Structure prediction request, 568 residues.
Amino acid sequence: MAGSKTWKVGLLYVLAFAVLFVMVFPYWYMLLGSLAPWNEVDRKLIPSSLTLRSYEWLFQGGEDVVPRPWLRAFFNSLLVTSASTLLMLVTAVMVGYALSKVKFKGRQWVNNAILFQMFYPSIILLIPLFLIVRYFGWYNTYWAMILPKAVNLWAIFMYTNFFRSIPDELIEAAKMDGAGHFTIIRRIVWPMSRSITTIIFLFLFMERWVELLWDMLVVNNEKMLTLNVLLAQMFGPYGGYPGPMYAASVLLTLPILILFLLFSKNFKEGMQFILK
Amino acid sequence: MNKHAAKVGWLLASPYLIYSAIFFLIPLFWALYLAFTNWNLISPEYETVGMQNFLDAFSSPSVRAAFWVTYKFMLMFVPIVIAGSLFLALILHHLPRWKGLFAVGYFLPYLASGVASSIVVKGVISYNSPLNQFLRDALGWDIDWLGSPILAPLVIALMMAWKFVGYYALLFLSGLESIPKEVYEAAEIDGAIGWKRVWHVTIPMLYPSFYTVTILAVGLMFGIFTEPYVLTGGGPEYATHTWQLEIYNQAFEKLNAGYGTAVAIINSIVTFASIFVFRKVLEKWGGKHGWE
Prediction:
């Protein structure tokens, strides 16, 4: 009996590692592709030697193709994503707090409006949104990429639900001590929501970082493009340079992986709330 | 005091209200108007054309393609992703140790940019890739992955499954973990072991997760853009031409903004209706077995 159990657990681990291999394989393939000699990219599973030529080429350019502003694009992505994510977090905490802890008339109405909007297919808005952004004179500016993505309904929804689980007595006690709502948010509510904030932050950052369609529409100046858009648009002309494409993909993937691994300790705890 | 609460409440909610007025309400009404015009995105002059855009859309081969392509993607993606994520969840659920570590590993694909993963996929299935070399040399198969109207959507569906399987597995896992031990014990006393136990306990108790994952997966198929845009551009012969590609092409490549908006409205009605039908079917099916 004990023998068959060990055997089963062994098989389970074999399966678990096999799946893990499949899940991580494309990342591994991307990394090796970026480091392989050019005549071996996409031809050999394991390159015979490693080289940084693809990365050098990416930043200094080749003989026959004009170098693209990859570093600038990386910076654009970082700026746009950080600003958007920060705004989405701040606004979500504010609205979530109002909807769960401030008793005001009309709160239920706002709540319903958010729920309605969450299930609304946003594709209808794409063209008029583009027109509004152009009307404001934001075409080809960072504003176009940041402000329409400064409020996130899902984040508001998550924070509202989470704040509901914070006891009202705690808030009332703080009020007795003379704390205002902003102090309560900063000193009590915000520190208490660390694990869920981690997850919401990761999801918002990740989704913003890989946005393609919107960023592609509102910006066409090469210097303003985000890394994701530049990579997608260079795919055609750079298609003959797979090595540098992989290097750019690594550049695009690394920040998210680092962030995620940095916060993976809080991952399970926060996830449990999100999945409820 | 009450007045103060009202003030604070509206003040704190104001970012949402202002945002929604500018970026939701105005565009919404604008869209409803634009859909009935022949505006070309640039010219200052345009006129209302009544239902013409909608009539054109219904008879357009590319809109029809987008309509069917979505269901084709669903047919490939939904079964794969459900079977896959359930499989991963079962592995994770039964692992005695390092469960969290494997869960994080399985979740990694969800973080990948569709652009980057498309590039990798294109490399993996390129003509001289190790995979194709093996298929040619060992089996004599010369497969044109992205040139075939059946394989191209399958490649994209598999790639999307790779990305979402770890995420959905976490949903199934939390469903599995919420089944109380007592239920299993009670079932065992009643003689439910092995497959009987799976059928009479695990599946019914997992039904809510199954429902959520299915609806999420179905909804996802209506919003595909990045992968076909980068990988196939909608080809071959519209085989991967999604709604979003059609709307993008019409509005921003061909500059038919009015027509594009009409297609977007049709798309959202189709999405709404399809998800509604899926929900009803799932609820009926669950209700028949008493799962709920």
Observations:
- The mean pLDDT of chain B is 90.
- Chain B has one domain: 52-288.
